[in-house]
Write a structure and sequence with these properties.
This protein is an alpha/beta fold. The chain has nine helices and nine strands. Strands 3-2-1-4-5 form a five-stranded parallel sheet, with helices on both faces. The protein has a four-stranded antiparallel sheet with strand order 6-7-8-9. Helix 6 (about 115-130) packs across helix 7 (about 140-155). The radius of gyration is 19 Å and the shape is globular. The protein starts with a helix and ends with a strand. Bound molecules: adenosine monophosphate (AMP). Adenosine monophosphate binds near residues 30, 31 and 138.
């Protein structure tokens, strides 16, 4: 990988990079297409990173399908599919760790306190290996986008971060590799994540500015319409992810609901006029 990248750099070619954990769906493919469009070379990695899963989380069961992923990468004209093994990425015990100290007490970090430390470690390594000019992430994982922005700034990576729209199924469910864990009933109920967020957006668009009123409404909907356990409903500034009482800037409203086998997340970025913002750069 390193030799190949060095050659590309010597030739002055630009590299677009899409880090993933595989089991591709249209969300991944949309990032790949953009990376392909906007760069000379598109590199996609598949690495289910043990460091970002806590003990008891779904590292072992995380869905994997190498053959299908390789076929899809080929069909989407990806130049390189980088699939390092755990042994290659972490050949010996690490001698240092990275710790996310901002944006790590909200949203997913609350129930997964070491998750983003693992994410930034693997990305720091992948960024050094691949030396991308542009990296592509989905706004489905908006907290990840905000944390990666911190990583790029703090460690001076000469990389442009691009956050692309959440790709949804017809009825609005955000595509996720973990959707395969849902049974039919839960799949119906899961539609309420997006519906509840849309209700929040409507409220903001019609002039509601009190964050508590909005989060309460979303919680009520989720409690009434799903059998899942609400992990969080939060309304925060974006990208700083600070608490909001009165809405007067770009905000994120985000939800996480635990179903029997899958914990699902979704969010909307909403500006002060109540409009949905789909991309972030
Ligand atoms: P993952 O394989 O789940 O780590 O995701 C790899 C990349 O795909 C991340 O940047 C995710 O945010 C992005 N992604 C996941 N689901 C979606 C989706 N439904 N729409 C757009 N991007 C997504």
């Amino acid at each position: 990988m390193k030799e190949y990248v060095t050659k590309l750099k010597q030739q002055g070619q630009t590299i677009g990079f899409v880090p993933t954990m595989g089991f591709f769906h249209e969300g991944h493919l949309s990032l790949m297409q953009k990376a392909k469009e906007e760069n000379d070379v598109a590199i996609v990695s598949i690495f289910v990173n043990p460091l970002q899963f806590a003990p008891g989380e779904d590292y072992d069961e995380y869905p994997r399908d190498e053959e299908r992923d390789q076929r899809l990468a080929k069909e989407n004209q990806i130049d390189v599919l980088f699939q390092p093994s755990v042994q290659e990425m972490y050949p010996k015990e690490m001698t240092l760790s990275l710790q996310v100290v901002k944006r790590n007490d909200v949203l997913c970090a609350r129930s997964r306190p070491t998750h983003f430390d693992g994410v930034v470690m693997v990305l720091a390594k992948l960024f050094n290996i691949i030396e991308p000019d542009q990296v592509y992430f989905g706004m489905k994982d908006a907290q990840q986008v905000a944390v990666v922005k911190g990583l790029i700034t703090d460690l001076n990576y000469p990389i442009k971060l691009i956050g692309l729209p959440t790709i949804r199924e017809e009825k609005g469910l955000a595509k996720s590799s973990r959707n395969v864990y849902l049974n039919d009933e839960e799949k119906e109920e899961a539609l309420w994540l997006y519906r509840s967020l849309k209700e929040a957006q409507k409220k903001i668009a019609s002039g509601e500015r009190d964050a508590t009123v909005i989060t309460k409404e979303v919680k009520n909907i989720l409690e009434q319409q799903t059998s899942g356990i609400i992990d969080y409903v939060e309304l925060l500034t974006f990208p700083a992810l600070k608490p909001v009482e009165t809405i007067h800037s770009l905000i994120i409203i985000a939800v996480a609901v635990k179903f029997r086998r899958a914990r699902l997340i979704d969010n909307l970025l909403i500006n002060e006029k109540g409009e949905i913002i789909h991309t972030y750069m």
